[in-house]
Each structure stands twice: as C-alpha cells, then as structure tokens.
Amino acid sequence: MKAVKPAKGTAAKAPAAQVPAAQVPFQDLYPANRLVEKEFLAQAAELYRESAFSGGPYVHSFEKAFAGYLGARHCLGLNSGTSAVHLALAALDIGPGDEVIVPAFTFVGSAWGILYCGATPVFADVDPDTACIDANSLAGAITPRTKAVIVVHLFGRPADMDLIQAVLDAHHGKRGQRIALIEDAAQAHGALWDGKAVGTLGDAGCFSFYPSKNLGAAGEAGAVITKSAAMAEKIERLRNHGQKVRYRHDLLGFNYRMDGLQGLFLEKKLAFLDRMNAERSLLATAYLEGLYSAEAVPLGGGEGSVWHLFVCRVKRRKAFLAHLDKHGIGYGIHYPVTLPELPPFRDAEAGTSKPGTASASRKGKGSKPGAGSKARSGSAQPHALELSRSVVSLPLFYGMKMEQVERVVDVVNAFG
Ligand SMILES: Cc1ncc(COP(=O)(O)O)c(C=O)c1O
Question: Nearest 10 degrees: CA dihedral of 287, 288, 290, 292?
Fold first, then answer.
C-alpha cells in the first residue's frame, strides 16, 4: 500500500488522544557540544598536524584557563576523575595502614583511589536532605589512623564546608592530628561555597570531565587542583610515569596524562560553563516550582549548586519508574547501592580480598583492615542506604526546553 503523505497542518488537527505525548530523554549531550563544534573541529585539524596528542601545549593551556576560572593556584590535567582522587591520595603518601573517610553514598570513582593506595576506606553517612557527607558521622569515623577525608559535592551541590572544616579543626586542636581534606568536585564545576569555587577549599580538588559532566570532554579526562606547589610537582611526576627528568623514574608512577584533544575541547567549552550552569539552574528552579507530589520529593540544590543532577526521593520507586516509562520520560538512578555494599569495598573492610588486589596487599603498621573505626558497614549509614533505595534523577541537561520540564512535572505530579 502506498503511504499517503498527510497534508500540511493536518497533524495539528488530529484528536488529542491520537497525538503521542512528547518523550523526554534523560540526557542529550549534543546541545552543549554543539556550542564549540565548529571552533573545536577547526583547531583540532591544527592539533592533528602538530600531532600534539598526549599532554603538551593544549593541555597546559586548558590547565591555566581552568585554574584561572576556579581561582586555583595549580591545575594538573589527567585522564579521568578517578585518577584525580587516586593521585591526590598518592601525593599525600597515603598507603597501607592509613584510613581515609569517604561518604557511603557517592559514585564509586570517589573511593577507588583509597584501594589503589592500599589504604582502608572508612564510610561516613550522608545528610538525608543534601546527600553530602554528614559532619557528625564524619566526626564519629575519625580514628588516630585517619589520614584524609574525601568530601563529595554530590549532584552539583556544595557540601557544608564550614561544618566539615570545624570537625577537622576541632580534631586538629585536640590531638594535633593533621587530616587532609580532599574535595571530589567531579559533579560540581563552578559550584560556589561562600563565594569560592568548590575544589579550592581543601588540600586538593578533584574533577572529572566525563562527557555527561557539567564540563564534559569529548572522551575521558579529569584534573586535580591544589594550592600546594609541592603537591602539584608530585602529581605532575606521578601522572607521567613517576619521572621529572626523562627516564629517571624516581617514584612509582602512572600513565594518567590528559590527551591534547581533550585539553583543546575543554578549554573551548570552559568559556560556556557559566552559561550552561545558569541554564541548568533555571531548569531546576522550574522543577522546584512545579513539583508538588508528596510521592517524589526533590533534594534541594542549596546555595551555589550547579545542578549536575535533579534528584528526587521516591517511596514507591518501582511503580514510579514504571509510570515514567509508560509516559516516555527518561530517568537515572544515582546510585542504587552504597559503597560498603559493593564487593571490593566489603572485602576491603573485612580484609577478605583475593591475593593480588590492592586491599590484599595492605600490610605493615600493625593495621588490620577495617580495625578501629566506628562507621563501617552498610547498616551503619542508614541515610545512605535509604537514599540508594529511593533516589530517581529526572531529565536535566543544557539545551533542555522549558516545555520538556513542564511535561516531566505534569507526569510526576500525576503519579500516585
Ligand atoms: C562524584 C564522582 N567522583 C568521581 C568520578 C570519577 O570520574 P571519572 O569517571 O572521570 O573517572 C565521578 C564521575 O564519573 C563522579 O561523579
């Protein structure tokens, strides 16, 4: 049968019931990447001719621009955010016998570095309203072996750095123990705490430029920022096979360098970061104003948030997701399990990992993995557990239309 092309305008006259409701994807990365497409591709041709693929001038130029944007002294471009946390810990000489506190509810990349260093992860609970580390739980997790705390600015929202700093200062005052503060700002490029960019407040700030991040690369990339020249110098060596002078590998090194193409792409995109963050904020505000269902309660962004994700807590998650599916609304779950529930971390706590794994190699300093801390198992972090079982992320991306937010709001409010 020959298809009959509908005459212009007839679609609009179809009865409402026959018009398929608009689908809304969870994410569309192209609108953000389109902003720099022409300029990037033109200059990529130049980079190609120069073959400046690994590290080099385009990476240095981005590092300078990103440090300037954040108000940081040093920036080291890397191949991922996971590497950023790893090298921040490694540069602090964290190793077997040391404990590092990290929230139980975050992306796994916040915590891999602890295992890579052979140290012991100690999990703190999160505040149920912010999903960021809970200061009381942090205070309770500190032991004489604690060497560092990783604070995560989750979903783009700055963690309460005043409370966290107060806990560390009190501890420092009482025991004279210096605990390093590492910020995982992988989801919070440009987020502000008290007017300062997150990542600049601790000893080191770690960023991921995974493509879906607020500042997303055209592939994998990450960076560490720090105010310490000594730390920057050490990370520079660690990322490049542990060498300062070619073939003089004085440190156990890694190949964690950033690609030249990513440096070029990220510097172009950085120019649009504030604009993209401002748009995310407008979309999030529209969600907050529109959503009223007691079935899906948004986590607030808090002052200075850059709204990496728009997350709701939902009691009947399975039914809610089926409702979203039925209406063509995309969603994500960030994150469905807590870190202490994951086998590599469970094993690290119990000291049961297999030979050859990082946690199995932990020895020396008389430390039994998992010994001496107060907050260790999944059930010791009830808020983290509750969030992992109830969170749902709704669509939010640069280029999303207000009508799309309205459509999601209508579908969510109709649930129940
Ligand atoms: C909070 C957090 N930490 C760490 C990472 C790790 O970054 P990457 O995926 O670039 O290794 C990510 C991103 O994926 C993240 O969201």
Answer: 120
Residue nearest to atom 8 of ligand 1 (CA): 81
Along the 416 residues of the chain, how does pLDDT read in single tens digits? 333 333 333 333 444 455 567 899 999 999 999 999 999 999 999 999 999 999 999 999 999 999 999 999 999 999 999 999 999 999 999 999 999 999 999 999 999 999 999 999 999 999 999 999 999 999 999 999 999 999 999 999 999 999 999 999 998 877 788 999 999 999 999 999 999 999 999 999 999 999 999 999 999 999 999 999 999 999 999 999 999 999 999 999 999 999 999 999 999 999 999 999 999 999 999 999 999 999 999 998 789 999 999 999 999 999 999 999 999 999 999 999 999 999 999 977 644 444 333 333 333 333 333 333 333 443 589 999 999 999 999 999 999 999 999 999 999 999 98
How many angstroms separate the alpha carbon of residue 110 from the centre of ligand 1? 6
Q: What is the pTM of this model?
A: 0.90
3-state SS class at 234: helix
Residue among 27, 78, 79, 82 whose CB has most ligand 1 atoms within 8 A, to mutate: 82
Residues in the chain, total? 416
CA dihedral of residues 168, 170, 172, 178 (deg, nearest 10) = 0
Helical H segments across 351-401, by residue range: 382-390
226, exposed or middle or buried, with CB in 10 Å at 0-12, 13-18, 19+? buried
**Amino acid identity, residue 301?**
G
Residues within a 6 A CB radius of ligand 1? 80-82, 106-107, 109-110, 152, 184, 186-187, 208, 210, 222
Cα 85 to middle of ligand 1, angstroms: 9
**Pair type for strands 99-103 and 120-124:** parallel
Top-tier CATH class for 34-271: alpha beta
| 3-class state of residue 119 by DSSP | coil
Ligand 1 mean position to 401 CA, how many Å?
27
Find the 208 Cα to ligand 1 centroid distance in Å. 5
β-strand pairing of 204-208 with 196-197: unpaired
